[in-house]
Amino acid sequence: MSQRAIFLDRSVGETRGVVTLDGRPERLILVRDDDDPRLSLGARLVARVASVEPAVATAFLDLGGGLEAILPFKPDARPVRGAAVEVEIRSEPRAGKLAVARELGRGEGAPRLLQAPPGVADILRAIVRDADPAGGRAARAAADEAEAEALETIHPLPGGGALAIEPTRALTAIDVDLGERKGADAKRAARQANLAALGEAARLLRLKSLGGLVVLDLVGRGHDGAALLAAARLAFAPDNPGVAIGPVGRFGTMELSIPRRTRPLAERLADATGGLSARTLAQRLVRRLEDEAAAQPGARLAAACAPDVAKAAEPLVQGLAERFGARFAVTADPVRPRERLDVSAA
Asked: What phi, psi does 44 have (nearest 5°)?
C-alpha cells in the first residue's frame, strides 16, 4: 500500500511544502513572500467583467492592479460587461496564458481580494489528512530533492529503463525507453516497463505541476490495452476530478487530459532561457547562509555569487540580518558561473 508523508521547509523569502509517495517526491508546493495571492489557486476575489467573447464562451476579468483572468461560461449564463462578480481562481497563470476563474455569484464594489488562498501547511494537510508536516533538516532535504527532480527531463524507471518528460506549448510528451531492462521475454519486459512508466509519469507530472494534454509513447507493440488503462486510472486517480484517459492507439500511444491547476514548477524556478532564475539561485544562496548561521552562531559569513544573483539576494539577506544579526556579506563576482554559490566564514 502506498504511503505519503508531508514536509514543510520555511526559509527567508520562500516556503516549500513537499509530499512524498513511498519516499519519493510527489508534489512540491512553492510560495514566495512576494507572490501575488490574487493569482494563486483557491483565492476568492471580486472581479469586474472587462469584456465578453461569446464566440469562445469566455469573459475577461479585471482583478485590479493590472491583473487579469478569464472566466469560461455556459451559453445560458453569459456575464454582463462591467458587472462585478465573485470568483475563485481554479487554474493559475502560466507562460502566455491567463489565470482561469470560476464564478461563485454576484459581486459588489471594486475588484479586490476577499479570501487569501490556502497556506502551504493547509495544502499539505488537505492532501495527507490527519498528519502534521515534518520540519527542520528533513524538510529541507526533501524540498531540495523534490526541486532537483522536478527540473530533470529524463528519469530512471524502477527495474530499468527511463522516462523522458518534455512539455511543449501544445502538450506534454512522455517517452518510455526500455533501455537495458532485464528480462529474457522482450514482450514481458516491455509490459513491465509500461506499467512502471504509468505510475512514475503520474507522480512526476504532479511533482512538475504539469497538466493539459499528455501523450505517452509506450514501448513495444501488441499492448495489453485493458491492463494499461486500469493502471493509468489507478495512477492518475489523485488528480481527479477531471482526468480523462484514452485507450492505447494504433501507434502505441496513450493520451490523457489532466486538469491544470497550479503554475508549472519549471516556470517558477527557471528564467526565459531555461536556466535557473536569479531569484531561484538567490533562494539557494540564502538557504546556505541560513544553515551556516544556525551551525556557527555569531560567526560572520561571506558569500560570493554572480551579479544578478547578488542583486536578487539583497532583500533576502536583509531578512537574514533581522533574524540572525548583521553578519552577512555578499560579493558580486562578474566572472563567476551563475550556479556557483560559495559561502564561508569571514
From this structure: -115, 135
271 confidence band (pLDDT: 50, 70, 90): very high
Q: What is the pLDDT of residues 208-225, one digit of tens each?
A: 999 999 999 999 888 889
Phi, psi for residue 152 in degrees, rounded to 5? -75, 155
CATH topology of domain 4-36+119-145: Ubiquitin-like (UB roll) (3.10.20)
Say if residues 11 and 287 touch (Cβ distance below 8 Å). Answer: yes
Q: What is the pTM of this model?
A: 0.93
Cα dihedral value 64, 66, 70, 71, nearest 10 = 10
Domain borders along the chain are 4-36+119-145, 42-115, 151-265, 272-345
The whole-angstrom separation of Cα 293 and Cα 110 is: 45
Cα dihedral 238/243/244/249 (nearest 10) = -50
Instruction: Assign domain 272-345 to a CATH class.
Output: alpha beta
* Sequence-separated (6 or more) residues with CB below 8 Å from residue 265: 28, 30, 147, 150, 151, 207, 208, 209
The three grid cell numbers given for residue 312, joined into one nine-digit string:
536578487
Distances 176 to 32, 162, 191 between C-alpha atoms, Å? 34, 6, 11
Q: Which CATH number fits domain 42-115: 3.40.718.10, 1.10.150.130, 2.40.50.140, 1.10.10.10?
A: 2.40.50.140
